[in-house]
Amino acid sequence: METQNLERFLKSFGGQVIRDAKANLIKAKGETALGDSIRFEVTADEQGFTTKFFMEDYGEYLDKGVSGNKKEHSYINTAGENVKSPYKYTTKGPPIDILSKWIKRKGIKPKGLGRGRDKKTGQFLSGFAYLISKKIKREGIKSLSFFQKPLGIKYKELKKGFLTELKLDIESYLITYYRPK
Fold first, then answer.
1. How many CB atoms neighbour CB 137 within 10 A?
2. How far is CA 103 from CA 47, 56, 106, 141, in A?
3. Which residue, 64, 77, 130, 136, is most buried by CB atoms nearer than 10 A?
4. 22 Cβ partners below 8 Å, 6+ apart?
5. DSSP 181
6. Continuous segment of H or E residues that includes residue 140
């Protein structure tokens, strides 16, 4: 059976979720590589259709937030409920060398904080990066829910429109193959 209407509907659903998620991310963080990495695929198999969403790994941490040692964070899930973040900093914070690269890329030049070398890699590390890492470990990362919100909103619309599109595909199939004589 041809399922053109259903496939088109699912591709439209995925496209709308991605568009809204990217808009939310740009509003919160500006243009980022994470926004460019968000994509979806609609695949068909013998059991039906699957719509899969993909993004950089750290996108989930920004979407759901990360609780710190002293502060708990929550996010808004697809059902619109406020849920505690599944991620938490316990013993380690974010890597200082990554933060040091970020500081350099942003052109931040803090005054009064020296630089040292990492014992393993020999790379120069900023004392400022160490302070940022400690703060993130303590406070955590606030949730943006940039992906969960649009997915929940569009999923409600998906449930309403799915049967309509399936009905159109079935009617088309019946008219094409079982036309009465």
1. 18
2. 49, 21, 5, 17
3. 64
4. 35, 38
5. -
6. strand 140-141
Between strands 140-141 and 66-67, the pairing is antiparallel
The whole-angstrom separation of Cα 62 and Cα 150 is 15
| Structure-token pair, residue 43 | 């695949």
Task: Report CA-CA distances (Å) from 133 to 34, 119, 125.
Answer: 21, 17, 12
Non-local (6+) Cβ contacts of 18 within 8 A are 38, 39, 40, 53
CA atoms within 13 A on the CB side of 125: 19
> Alpha helix locations (H) across the chain?
4-29, 33-37, 58-64, 96-106, 127-139, 148-177
| pTM listed for this prediction | 0.77
Dig out the tokens for 170 from the structure.
Answer: 């079935």
C-alpha 25: how far from chain center: 9
8-state DSSP, 125: E
**pLDDT grade for 146, boundaries at 50, 70 and 90:** very high
Q: Which residue has the higher pLDDT, 9 or 1?
A: 9
**Which single residue is written with the structure tokens 């697809």?**
78
Reference 93, options 126, 141, 50; nearest CA is 141
- Are 49 and 43 in contact by the 8 Å Cβ rule? The answer is yes
